[in-house]
Design goal:
88% helix; mainly alpha; 58 residues; elongated
Length: 58
């Protein structure tokens, strides 16, 4: 999970820097990263549960 979030932050480094440069509060930038991480976690959980349920039904 950490690697996925870290890769996302690295890919968005310029965007996050630009947000900071135009006056976005650091708290909002961190919130954006956490929101993205939560989205990835929820989608991963749902996908994992769906696959596990499909495999169990066989």
């Amino acid at each position: 999970m950490f690697d996925t979030v870290w890769m996302g932050v690295q890919e968005r480094a310029r965007e996050l820097g630009l947000l900071t440069a135009v006056g976005t509060d650091a708290r909002q930038v961190v919130g954006s990263v956490f929101t993205g991480a939560t989205g990835v976690a929820v989608l991963g959980d749902l996908l994992g549960l769906s696959v596990a349920d499909a495999l169990r039904a066989q």
